[in-house]
Amino acid sequence: MDILYLRDFRLELIIGVYEWERKVPQPVRIDLEIGLPHSRAGSSDDVADTIDYGAVAGRIAEALCQAPRPLALVEAVAERVAAIVREEFGAPWVRVSVTKFAIVPGVRELGVTIERGARP
C-alpha cells in the first residue's frame, strides 16, 4: 500500500477540558498517514489518481477551525480527522496523531495516535 503523509500540520484551536484552556486558541499539531486506495499516481503522474493532500489539509482546517462547537479532547479531534479522510476522501486506512503543547507542567507534548480502517 502507498501511504501519503502530512507531518507537522499546525492549527490554532480552542480545545481543552478546563475552562482556562478554552479561553484562547492554542497550537495543535496533526500528523497524518493516509493509505491510498491504489498506487496508480506513481506511474500516471496525475493528481486524479491520488488523494489531494492540499484538499485534505483545507478540509480539516475548515472542519476544526470553523466548528460550531469546539472539541474538548485530542481523541475527539483525531476521530473527526480520521472520519473526514476516510469518508470524504476514500482512504481505506488512516493513522492520525494529535499533539498539544505545554499543557501539563513538566510535559512538553501530549497527545493521541489512532488508526482507523484496514490496510489492503
Q: What does this molecule look like?
A:
The chain is an alpha+beta fold and 120 residues long. It has a single domain, classed as 2-Layer Sandwich (GTP Cyclohydrolase I, domain 2). It is built from three helices and four strands, in the order E-E-H-H-H-E-E. The chain has a four-stranded antiparallel beta sheet with strand order 1-2-3-4, with helices on one face. Strand 3 and strand 4 form a beta hairpin. Helix 2 crosses helix 3. The protein is elongated and about 50 Å long. The N and C termini lie close together (7 Å). The relative contact order is 0.23. The model has no long low-confidence stretch (mean pLDDT 93).
**How many domains in all?**
1
How many whole angstroms does the radius of gyration measure?
Answer: 15 Å
Helix content: 25-40%
Q: Helix count?
A: 3
Task: Sketch the topology as an H/E string, one letter per element.
Answer: EEHHHEE
The CATH architecture term is: 2-Layer Sandwich
Can you list the strand order of the major beta sheet? 1-2-3-4
